[in-house]
Amino acid sequence: MIARSTDTAVHAADATAAASVDASGMPVWNLADLYSAPDSPEVQRDIAASAAEAARIKAQYQGKLAGIGGDGGKLAEAIIAYETLSDLMGRLGSYAGLLYAGNQADPARAKFYGDISEKLTNISSDLIFFELELNQIADADLAAALKVPALAKYKPWFADLRKEKPYQLEERIEKLFHEKSQTGRGALDRLFNETMTALRFPVEGEAEPLSLEPTLNMLSNAAEPKRRAAAEALAKVFGENIRLFTLITNTLAKDKEISDRWRGFKDVAESRHLSNKVEAPVVDALVAAVRESYPQLSHRYYRMKARWLGMAKLSHWDRNAPLPEKPERVIAWPEAREMVLSAYGGFAPEMAGIATKFFDNGWIDAPVRPGKSPGAFAHPTVPSAHPYVLLNYQGKSRDVMTLAHELGHGVHQVLAAQQGPLLSQTPLTLAETASVFGEMLTFQALLKGATDARERKALIAGKVEDMLNTVVRQIAFYSFERKVHEARANGELTSEDLNKFWMEIQYESLGDGIDFKPGYEVFWTYIPHFIHSPFYVYAYAFGDCLVNSLYALYQEAHPGFVQKYFAMLMAGGSKHHSELLAPFGLDASKPEFWKKGLSVIAGMIDELEAMEGKV
Q1: In terms of Cα–Cα distance, which of 95, 102, 92 is closest to 3?
Q2: For residue 44, what are the contacts with CB-CB under 8 A and spacing of at least 6?
Q3: DSSP code for 575
Q4: Cβ-proximal residues to 389 (8 Å cutoff; 6+ apart), any chain
Q5: What 3-state class would DSSP assign to 501?
Q6: 3-state class of 390 per DSSP?
Q7: Residues 402, 422: Cα–Cα separation, whole Å
Q8: Residue 388 near residue 123, CB atoms below 8 Å
Q9: Best label site of 154, 181, 393, 416, fewest CB within 10 Å?
């Protein structure tokens, strides 16, 4: 369907100049490149224009697309009109989502977001027929039409559309599913967001209860009592709200089961694989390789970290504790900017040049604020505009890596925009490539500059923990989701069921080096991907293992690596992962590919073990 951009919310400020900063000196982004304000005449103008154009497309093409399918010129006119409207509606949806995420506690922003989402849903309902009818064009007619140059560029889009054909329903049912999403999945997504934003956590020793982001951040505090107090506060508040989160999870899982059953998907993750343009056996090979590696990766590392901290086992709140050898320092924003841009520039000046635009043009919102969406992400908006990056920057080394990660997304989105609205969106499995590669560049630059053995140990340990969080943790999340969705097909799940599934997965993935204290069983409640994007999480592990293999080639001076890398990013969603990896000699369908990526993590743990007793 045509209006997709409200699915991923990103933050906004009502700025009208280029870059601006808050009282701390950190950047607050400027949405004026989309719209100057929610009540601006341009918003109403574009809503009206979208509705009119959708009605025109419906009147001109409904019931006729199959008939003109062999005429490449006429079909190209229809596709170009559809794509142009996609950009306009995406601009509206992006602006509403960005504004809302900037302060989800603000009723005015919440209403604007809800109103725009509803209007876009209604407008796009007129276009349900479009992709359904395109799939009714005879294969021979479409093949002939695609020989026309104006239509030929859309060949990959048509190929992906054809793969959806077996799961598409009759137009009236598709329209019902589409319109009911506002009061179904969309409403529950919003309930989760606004509930989580409003929660406050009474951390012992803090003057006022904290919001989610600073409370989670305290789990990496150098002082064990603070980590424990944060974990206990999280457990208390999540537990007090467990019935609501259980209801949301049950309802969304059942909603997905109904949709999957009507469409004919046989596996709970099959629809995600289809949208990711990846085959189930490839994902299965990744999951199997990671699960097989748990003992050599996470189990081994956390036992070693417990020894470093002088503990028999790590309490669950100690998992991300900083090492005692190198106290955590606050990294000021200007220093973080220089670290990342320098690392990017060392790889390719063009990459740093694109990233610099985010800092200079008001495309980043960095500070923590009440009501602001937690976490961090990059939103591509639409090709006629530019991406925006949201952070909750608090000066830790992990925050610098998060900046590098999100700017990687941003660079990727800028480069892919040339493909246009229908082909620029990269599948999730490859969307994490540039972000994780940006992290790796930044890490390697910092490691190269580390002359002190203790500093080197701390850097490697930090990177290992980030990779475990990206690979082991995300595959564990995927396993948890599979348990939840498979069990929900047989009836409603209790909070105890969900807690049990969560803990089974934690014991398996993290191992006997972690002592899971009472309260950790409810930590599944705050993971937003479970709510907003079921089975999204394996894309992180896919991207990390892929980047490990790519970076090894880069270090080996693989011929033309930088050019091939940029070509991969510029392709957006126009090529299958096998086509994009072929120039590097990589094949994700082979188990050896995943084992090679995992061996990079194992090698870093080997190096840390070799340091024991010496550093």
Answers
A1: 92
A2: none
A3: S
A4: 10, 29, 358, 363, 364, 365, 376, 377, 378, 379, 406, 407, 409, 410
A5: helix
A6: strand
A7: 28
A8: no
A9: 181
For 325-362, the pLDDT digits (tens) are 665 678 999 999 999 999 999 999 999 999 999 999 99
HSE, CB side, 13 Å, CA atoms: give it for residue 363. Answer: 26
DSSP state at residue 544: H
Q: Which helix (H) or strand (E) holds 315?
A: strand 314-315
What SS3 state is found at 383? coil
* Window from 68-72, 223-227, 229-233 with minimum mean pLDDT: 68-72
Q: Tokens 């892929």 map to which residue? A: 546
Whether domain 192-199+241-361+396-615 has CATH 3.40.50.1010: the reply is no
The pTM score is 0.84
Check residue 5 and give its pLDDT: 34
CB neighbours (10 Å) of residue 612? Answer: 11
* Percent above pLDDT 70 for the chain: 96
Structure token pair of residue 426: 């990269």
- In order of 23, 420, 454, the CA distances from 279 in angstroms are 48, 25, 43
How far apart CA 589 and CA 462 sit, in angstroms, is 30
Q: Which residues contact 506 (CB under 8 A, 6 or more apart)?
A: 476, 514, 516, 520
Q: How far is CA 55 from CA 61, 135, 186, in A?
A: 10, 21, 24
Point out the least confidently predicted range of 214-218, 232-236, 591-595. 591-595
CATH of 5-183, one of 3.30.460.10, 1.20.140.70, 1.25.40.10, 1.10.3720.10: 1.20.140.70
Closest listed residue to residue 228, CA positions, set 521, 528, 519, 513: 519
pLDDT digits (tens, 9 = 90+) for 502-541: 999 999 999 999 999 999 999 999 999 999 999 999 999 9
Output the six-digit token pair for 64: 């006729």
Asked if 5-183 and 192-199+241-361+396-615 have one fold, the answer is no
Q: What is the CA radius of gyration of the chain?
A: 24
Start-to-end CA span in the chain (Å):
57
Q: How far apart are CA 306 and CA 303, in angstroms?
A: 5
Q: What is the residue whose two structure tokens read 């930044």? A: 442
With cut-offs at 50, 70 and 90, classify the pLDDT of residue 613: confident
Q: Tokens 């294969």 sit at which residue? A: 139
User: In Å, how far are 36, 197, 414, 532 from 563, measured between CA atoms?
Assistant: 38, 42, 16, 35
**What are the CA-CA distances from residue 608 to residues 120, 168, 442, 463 (Å)?**
53, 51, 20, 11
What's at 150, amino acid-wise? Answer: A
